C-alpha cells in the first residue's frame, strides 16, 4: 500500500513539474517572430502554425539560434554561441561515416590538414590551406602553433624554420615556419640561391639576371595554374586572412 502511494505521489510531482514548465514556456503565437526556443531543450523550438503552438526538433547536431539565424531552419552549430547555457539536449547523436552527428564539422581520422563537414549525414572532405591545420577546439583551420599533436610538414623535416627551393623556380621558395611551409617570393631583381637558401643578387649557378623586375603580385593570377600545381598538400602562397523534424 505504501509503495502504491509513493508511486502516485511521484507521478503527481512529475505532472506538476511538466505543467510548470509549460507555464514558463513562451507562446510563439504571442510573439512577433512566431518562433521561440524551448525553455528546457536547446535543440527544440516552438512555432505558431495555424494559431497553434507546435514543437519542432532542430536537425541532429544543431541547436536553436532564432528565426532566420544559424545555418538552417533557425538552428546553428552549438559551439558558435552559448545557445545551451542553462538548457540540455533533447536528442542524442545520430552518427554516419565520418560524422559524429548528422550536421557538424569534425576532425579527420588520419590527417591534421583535413576535416569533414557533415550535412544531413553526408560527409565532405575539406582541406586547410596555407600551411594551416584543423583545430578541433575552434572547429576551423588554425596556425600550427595553436594545434597540438600534429606532425610537421615533410617539406620542413630538415629545418623547421629554414628555406626550401621550389622546383626550378628562380624567385619563389618555401619558408618553413615552425615546421610548416609558406610560399614566399624574392624581392624584385633578386633570385633564390639553392646553395645559400636565400635571395641574392644574380647571376647564380642556376639563375640569370632577370630581364625585367619581378612583380610581387599579379603574375600569380596570370600564371595561377603553374603556381598551384607546385603546391604540396596543406600549403599555398602567403598568409591567409583566417526538412524540419517535428516532435
Automatic annotation (TrEMBL):
Keywords: Chitin-binding, Disulfide bond, Glycoprotein, Repeat, Signal. One of its GO terms (cellular component) is extracellular region. Residues 26-86, 96-152, 153-209 form the Chitin-binding type-2 domain. One of its GO terms (molecular function) is chitin binding. It comes from the Eukaryota. The keyword Disulfide bond applies. SMART domains: ChtBD2. Residues 210-247 are annotated as: Disordered. InterPro entries: Chitin-bd_dom, Chitin-bd_dom_sf, Chitin_bind-dev_reg. Residues 1-20 form the signal peptide. PANTHER family: CHITIN BINDING PERITROPHIN-A, OBSTRACTOR D. This is Chitin-binding type-2 domain-containing protein.
Amino acid at each position: 500500500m505504501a509503495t502504491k502511494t509513493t508511486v502516485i505521489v511521484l507521478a503527481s510531482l512529475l505532472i506538476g513539474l511538466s505543467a510548470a514548465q509549460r507555464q514558463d514556456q513562451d507562446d510563439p503565437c504571442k510573439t512577433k517572430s512566431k518562433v521561440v526556443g524551448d525553455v528546457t531543450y536547446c535543440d527544440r523550438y516552438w512555432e505558431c502554425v495555424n494559431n497553434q503552438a507546435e514543437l519542432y526538433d532542430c536537425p541532429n547536431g544543431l541547436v536553436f539560434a532564432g528565426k532566420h539565424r544559424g545555418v538552417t531552419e533557425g538552428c546553428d552549430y552549438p559551439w558558435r554561441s552559448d545557445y545551451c547555457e542553462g538548457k540540455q539536449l533533447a536528442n542524442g547523436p545520430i552518427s554516419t561515416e565520418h560524422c559524429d552527428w548528422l550536421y557538424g564539422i569534425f576532425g579527420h581520422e588520419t590527417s591534421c590538414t583535413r576535416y569533414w563537414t557533415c550535412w544531413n549525414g553526408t560527409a565532405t572532405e575539406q582541406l586547410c590551406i596555407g600551411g594551416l591545420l584543423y583545430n578541433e577546439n575552434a572547429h576551423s583551420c588554425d596556425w600550427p602553433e595553436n594545434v597540438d599533436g600534429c606532425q610537421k610538414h615533410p617539406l620542413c623535416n630538415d629545418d623547421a624554420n629554414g628555406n626550401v627551393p621550389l622546383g626550378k623556380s628562380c624567385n619563389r621558395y618555401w619558408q618553413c615556419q615552425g615546421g610548416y611551409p609558406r610560399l614566399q617570393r624574392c624581392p624584385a631583381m633578386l633570385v633564390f640561391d639553392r646553395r645559400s637558401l636565400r635571395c641574392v643578387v644574380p647571376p647564380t649557378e642556376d639563375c640569370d639576371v632577370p630581364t625585367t623586375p619581378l612583380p610581387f603580385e599579379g603574375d600569380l593570377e596570370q600564371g595561377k595554374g603553374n603556381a598551384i600545381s607546385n603546391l604540396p598538400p596543406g600549403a599555398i602562397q602567403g598568409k591567409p586572412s583566417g526538412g524540419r523534424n517535428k516532435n
